[in-house]
Amino acid sequence: MNHSELLKLAIKASIDAGAKILEIYKNDNFGVQSKDDQSPLTMADIASNNAIMDYLNTTNIPIISEENKEIAYADRKDWNECWIVDPLDGTKEFIKKNGEFTVNIALCKDGKPIFGVIYVPVSRELYYADVNKNEAYKSVLSKDHDIIKELFLEEDRIATSEPNHELVRVVGSRSHMNDDTQDYIDSIKSNFNQVDIVSKGSSLKFCLVAEGKADVYPRFAPTMEWDTAAGQAICNAVGLNVISRETNEELDYNKENLLNPFFLVRK
């Protein structure tokens, strides 16, 4: 498959997985379990992962998924490309039934995302981006998760907002702001007349900045590679940087330790 075909396959996989998630979301029994790290696992995580694997396994490109068996770095270190998947990003949001959960699929090459797809099953919003082309899009599907118009239309392209020296919108939590994030907000207050906090769950935080609904996203709390790869692709495609606080460089992928450093999303 060529690059374009792989992106279209990832889009199909994300939509199919999202539809399967919603079938379970409509019920009251999610089959919630606790993983070894005490994070929740539901039947929807598993159903979504199985659907995505059915698609991606046809590409013969190796896969890192939150819900697959962990692959040792000795077996991964020579991969020049791989899929990175979170079949249900925001499981806690799913359990709360607030709709702010996503399906994340990215293709990474030489440690960097080259395209990403984020599907929001409840709102049926589909974000997709090609980093090499500097193009990112947002389409809305039908209630049956059908693509109702052509993808990659110019009218559906997303872009960041223009700089505003009066107001800065920071992606964060209104109720659980940690000290590092609060310190960052305090450090930029002198540059603006007003600082607003914009809150969202899951990888939608990346999408807020990419489509101009927020200006900066400080993430000074733990995340894994599958939480960020698709969002980073979408942000990179619109000219945003996802900068490690440790290295001051873009986040890398397929690392020996799949835990991300703290990072900042900004121009």
Q: Which spans have pLDDT < 50 for at least 5 consecutive residues? A: none
Main β-sheet description: 6 strands, mixed
Superfamily (CATH H level) name of the largest domain? Fructose-1,6-Bisphosphatase, subunit A, domain 1
Shape: globular
Please name the CATH architecture of the largest domain.
2-Layer Sandwich
CATH topology of the largest domain: Fructose-1,6-Bisphosphatase, Chain A, domain 1
Q: Mean pLDDT, as a whole number?
A: 93
By CATH reckoning, the class of the largest domain would read: Alpha Beta
- Our count of domains comes out at 2
Number of strands: 13
Oligomerization status of the protein chains = single chain
Series of secondary-structure elements, N-terminal to C-terminal: HEEHEHEHEEEEEHEHEHEE
Strand order of the largest sheet: 3-4-5-6-7-8
Cα distance spanning the termini: 33 Å
| Relative strand content | 15-25%
